[in-house]
Specification:
8 strands, single chain, alpha/beta, 4-stranded mixed β-sheet, two-stranded antiparallel sheet, 294 residues
Amino acid sequence: MATKTRRKKQVTPERLQELGFAYAPPLIIAAAVNNKVFDSLESGPKTIEQVSKETGASRRGLRAIMNALIGLRLLKKDRQNKYSLTPESAAFLVSNKPGSLTGLFGTIVPHLASKWLPLTDIVRNGQPLDLAAGSGIWGIALTQKSPRVRVIALDWAGMIPTTKRFTQKFGVADRFNYVEGDLLEANFGNGYDLAILGHILHSEGEERSRPLLKKTFRALKVGGTIAIAEWLVNDERTEPVHSLMFAVQMLVNTEKGDTFSFNEIKSWLEDAGFKKVRKLQAPGPSPLVLATKP
């Protein structure tokens, strides 16, 4: 009786070749954002020549990146060679839209990409290059939802002017007060209904996150809530890939930063005195972690 032999699947270099150019899409988007390509197309379809005239960017450069953006499904082109936005780019890559990611791609991504270049040496010696801070956008979103919300924004003195610029841009500056200083040293005050830690723990690392959560617990009123946004990994640290890659981002840019699992953060919160630690599904790569002060 003849037996069938199963042929092994041939190993090819295609996936590695794709990974070799994985740096390109965010930088292409950054170039388009900084050259106002998406803003130009918001008013309707345009040719390369029209976008060039409106933005001042070269036709050769625009042709290359705009065709690449078609491949990335962020632009489309009709038979008259006019380019237009897709629903995704219209929602998130036009600068005046509420959910715009133009700040991320236009400024932060090119800056962060440059910080990754010495990764080989960083892995060898374990030393970081720089730190980054936030813009206050979490508090801004809350104030836009309710006129009763008042926010205390805390950050380093050098970051506060940027926070103020964003609150002014979104018309909520009069509902913000600002505290300058280190998270573990600045005076939080007390009696808060809600404390937001929007992507803070990953840069602080466990050593500073634990006392920060205890300090936050003391600042909340009884029944108050802490809301934590983080790039969560699973307990085995095998997925999701974006959170695992962000751990490398923390290696590059912080002294002790990392990404953590829900159960790790849950144990820190419970040690700080919080109860009812739970997840809340939210738009974005990870759920929010919520807990209550009993």
